[in-house]
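Recap from last week: sequence in, structure out.
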Amino acid sequence: MSNLMEIQNQIALLQKQAEEIKAQEFSKTVQEILAKMEAFGITVTDLDGSKNRLRKSTTSPTGKSANPAPAKFRGPNGETWSGRGLMPRWLAALVAQGKTKESFAIKV
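Predicted structure tokens:
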């Protein structure tokens, strides 16, 4: 059975081998990337700009939608609900009292 020193020596040897392999493959990988960039006409500026393009979404940094859904239900105290997601507590409590969800629908 191996002791701790032998295992640590094996780890060090494997880490050294991994670094050598990484160094050998690094330049090859860079050349492949440069070749693809040239073939597709991609510049470093395109790569920096892609960060912003990939992050654009319909939500703001707070997680709220830029265009919230219109309210479909209004409670007795002015609460509103779009009908999406979980039923809000105010409406669930009223439904539990025997009232119907449709009785709070906003008429258009």
